């Protein structure tokens, strides 16, 4: 049975936009919900997630919903909305890509179909830099760059597949204003514990990830990528909800991050090395279930292009308030402090003893 939690303090306010945010409790969702509830042009925000959070900002209400096939009917939840922002995404388990496909692709198809059936006039979808085909590292590409992803990695493969789905969807439903947001890697302090669990694993000692304690940063060929503070991405989402725009928008802050920039951040030394040994070590750790991030994801990162965000700046009047270095620096500080938030995905770190128990359980079940 679906469980509903009503508005937070302040009710729904005056007349304005009614927005549904699907996947509202993660790294991006919490920032988007906050940005929307702080917008005077937004009347109410309905947050959908698998687990209802304790966090309830003004003008918001929550429902526990599963978007996977067999889950709740989404159409009644979308009827009357001015826009649906679709953010729900499952990164794990990378060892079982059929499971992530079920949520990320089949679940997204249910969201898209429900938007059309409910007559919602706008769909804002969270795509990613990961949707892009391999591209240059010495110049930035615009939104016309091919979006075929890196086929070996589940994350990029699924993002690219949904780009193709939306190509057809826009033709079938010209009455729906479809916006595709393609941000770089997103960081904020409150997401540190979640991202450590997703990508590095529960055993990473966050307190050791501090300047002066990391001796070297690997300078791998192709290690040049873009990052963005999650709150800055959320301001672009808010603008995409309110403005009559369509199509794709790249979102990235300056400067691009490489081994030299990361080495300065860690007060370490950049060390040039081939990608092969690093990938082999990651592959071994992944096969042993010591880290959750697959070596295919590393391959994707090394091949992703740099993005040009000119369209977002011009059409959304968007400008990031944080540099990429500030965004990742805030994340690293949160990692050292075990930071989190009052939602299930962003829950703060557990103790080392609890992490060891969880690892042992995963290895046994594997």
What does this protein look like?
The chain is α/β, with parallel strands linked by helices. The chain contains twelve helices and 16 strands. The chain has helices at residues 27-37, 75-78, 97-118, 154-172, 192-200, 230-242, 259-266, 275-287, 295-303, 310-315, 324-337, 352-365, and strands spanning 3-5, 17-22, 42-49, 60-64, 83-86, 122-126, 140-141, 177-183, 185-187, 216-219, 224-225, 227-229, 247-251, 257-258, 269-272, 306-307. The chain has an eight-stranded mixed sheet with strand order 1-4-3-2-5-6-8-13, with helices on both faces. Helix 1 crosses helix 6 and helix 3 packs parallel to helix 4. The longest helix has 22 residues, at 97-118. The chain is globular. Residues 1-5, 8-14 and 351-366 have low confidence and may be disordered.
Brief summary:
Helix 1 packs across helix 6 and helix 3 packs parallel to helix 4. The chain contains 12 helices and 16 strands.
Summary tags:
366 residues; alpha/beta; eight-stranded mixed β-sheet; two-stranded parallel sheet; globular
Strand and helix layout:
Elements: E1 3-5, E2 17-22, H1 27-37, E3 42-49, E4 60-64, H2 75-78, E5 83-86, H3 97-118, E6 122-126, E7 140-141, H4 154-172, E8 177-183, E9 185-187, H5 192-200, E10 216-219, E11 224-225, E12 227-229, H6 230-242, E13 247-251, E14 257-258, H7 259-266, E15 269-272, H8 275-287, H9 295-303, E16 306-307, H10 310-315, H11 324-337, H12 352-365
Parallel strand pairs: 2-3, 2-5, 3-4, 5-6, 6-8, 7-16, 8-13, 9-12, 10-15
Antiparallel strand pairs: 1-4, 11-14
Helix pairs in contact: 1-6, 3-4
């Amino acid at each position: 049975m679906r469980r509903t939690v009503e508005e937070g303090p302040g009710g729904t306010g005056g007349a304005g936009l009614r927005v549904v945010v699907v996947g509202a409790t993660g790294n991006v969702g919490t920032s988007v919900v906050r940005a929307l509830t702080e917008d005077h042009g937004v009347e109410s925000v309905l947050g959908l997630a698998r687990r209802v959070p304790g966090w309830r900002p003004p003008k918001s209400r929550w429902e526990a919903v599963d978007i996977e096939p067999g889950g709740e009917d989404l159409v009644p939840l979308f009827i009357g909305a001015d826009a649906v922002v679709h953010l729900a995404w499952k990164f794990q388990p990378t060892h079982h890509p059929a499971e992530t496909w079920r949520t990320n692709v089949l679940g997204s198809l249910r969201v898209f179909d429900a938007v059309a059936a409910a007559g919602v006039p706008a769909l804002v979808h969270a795509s990613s830099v990961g949707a892009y085909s391999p591209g240059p590292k010495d110049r930035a590409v615009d939104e016309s760059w091919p979006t075929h992803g890196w086929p070996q990695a589940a994350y990029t493969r699924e993002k690219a597949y949904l780009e193709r789905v939306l190509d057809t969807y826009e033709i079938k439903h010209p009455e729906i204003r479809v916006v595709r947001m393609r941000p770089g890697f997103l960081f904020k302090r409150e997401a540190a514990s979640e991202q450590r669990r997703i990508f590095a694993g529960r055993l990473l000692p966050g307190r050791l990830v501090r300047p002066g304690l990391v001796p070297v940063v690997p300078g791998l060929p192709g290690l040049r990528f873009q990052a963005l503070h999650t709150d800055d991405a959320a301001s672009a989402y808010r603008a995409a909800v309110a403005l009559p725009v369509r199509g794709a928008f790249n979102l990235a802050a300056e400067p691009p991050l490489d081994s030299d920039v990361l080495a300065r951040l860690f007060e370490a030394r950049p060390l040039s090395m081939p990608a092969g040994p690093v990938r082999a070590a990651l592959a071994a750790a992944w096969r042993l279930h010591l880290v959750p991030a697959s070596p295919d994801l590393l391959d994707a990162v090394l091949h992703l292009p740099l993005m040009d965000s000119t369209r977002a700046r011009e059409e959304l009047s968007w400008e990031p308030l944080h540099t990429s270095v500030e965004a990742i620096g805030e994340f690293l500080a949160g990692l050292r402090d075990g930071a989190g938030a009052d939602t299930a995905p962003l829950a703060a770190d557990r103790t080392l003893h609890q992490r060891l128990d969880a690892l042992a359980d995963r290895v046994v079940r594997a």
